[in-house]
Amino acid sequence: MSLSHTNFPNEIPDPNINGCRATREILDRIGDKWSLYIIASLAKGTMRFNELRRSIDGISQRMLTLTLRELERDGLVSRTMYPTIPPRVDYELTELGQTLLVPVMALVSWADTNQLTIAAAQERFDERSDID
């Protein structure tokens, strides 16, 4: 399908200009292995660190800490620390993070709708004998 048959503009931006570089950096951030899991988990509301960790199968404490820090740096997640013993730390999506839910859920929906088609294409590709 050509781009003229989609909702995209007729011209694709040059990937070497600054706007595209910034877009690529943002997509790298939210498209990493764990960020979307964290964003989806926080869509349900404020969560403590260990609640988040339990809700995301396979994430290590270190990776959760690093990813939360980056999402906070990007303004997508807020961190609130309460002076209790032990300290209580809550995480939630910021207003900016909330705006990310619509495109993220669209991507999740697209992946869900197309998972069988993609699996079939991968199987056909893998069965080809002409691949080096």
Can you offer a commentary on this structure?
With 132 residues, the protein is mainly α. The protein is built from six helices and three strands, in the order H-H-E-H-H-E-E-H-H. It has helices at residues 18-30, 35-42, 49-55, 61-73, 95-99, 101-127, and strands at 47-48, 77-82, 88-93. The chain has a three-stranded antiparallel beta sheet with strand order 1-3-2. Strand 2 (77-82) and strand 3 (88-93) form a beta hairpin. It is globular. Mean pLDDT is 86; it is low at 1-5.
Chart the SSEs and their pairings.
Elements lengths: L17 H13 L4 H8 L4 E2 H7 L5 H13 L3 E6 L5 E6 L1 H5 L1 H27 L5
Antiparallel strand pairs: 1-3, 2-3
Compact summary:
This protein is mainly alpha-helical.
Shape label = globular
How much is the average pLDDT?
86
Largest sheet: 3 strands, antiparallel
Helix content: 55-70%
Question: What's the order of the H and E elements?
Answer: HHEHHEEHH
Distance between the termini: 27 Å
Number of strands: 3
Number of helices: 6
**Rg, Cα atoms, Å:** 19 Å
**Strand pairing plus helix content: what structural class?**
mainly alpha
Strand order in the sheet with the most strands? 1-3-2
Strand content: 5-15%
Uncertain ranges: 1-5
